[in-house]
Write a structure and sequence with these properties.
Blueprint lengths: L1 E6 L6 E6 L7 H14 L4 E5 L8 H9 L3 E5 L10 H11 L8 H16 L2 H9 L9
Parallel strand pairs: 3-4
Antiparallel strand pairs: 1-2
Helix pairs in contact: 3-4, 3-5
Length: 139
């Protein structure tokens, strides 16, 4: 799975985007996910990303050149406390803690159901942002 939280600067609406994937996520997959998210967002987009290698490199530089409204800000290395998306996954793991799917498809279905539920809880999504250690002006 790959996911992202988005906050509208005007209406302060919080949204959760995610996409399942059967294989390990690579740079082209991450770039494709960002392209899909950009379809749903207007204006300038500031993307806060950790320093994973899939978030850097030629594919991402090409994406940034193609979408001038996209500004990528890399979080410091080894700083999950700054990443609000970690809160989403913490909540998802808590919800799935006692599940034992027999098949990968069962896990995907449970995870999709859980993320659908989280997406419908804007206050919980906002708490993922406010409980991160991001500077207050970014929350």
């Amino acid at each position: 799975m790959i996911s992202a939280l988005a906050v509208s600067p005007v209406r302060q609406r919080v949204r959760l985007f995610w996409r399942p994937q059967r294989t390990n996520i690579r740079a082209p997959d991450a770039a494709d996910f960002v392209r899909q998210v950009l379809v749903h967002l207007q204006g300038a987009v500031f993307l806060l990303w950790d320093n994973a290698s899939i978030h850097k490199g030629p594919v991402m530089r090409t994406l940034q050149r193609r979408f001038r409204r996209l500004r990528v800000v890399h979080l410091p290395a080894y700083a999950p406390e700054l990443n609000p998306d970690e809160g989403v996954w913490r909540n998802a793991k808590r919800a799935l803690a006692n599940a034992r799917p027999d098949r990968l498809d069962d896990l995907r279905e449970s995870l999709t159901t859980t993320l659908d539920g989280l997406a419908r809880r804007p206050a919980l999504l906002r708490s993922c942002i406010t409980h991160s250690d991001l500077p207050p002006f970014l929350r």
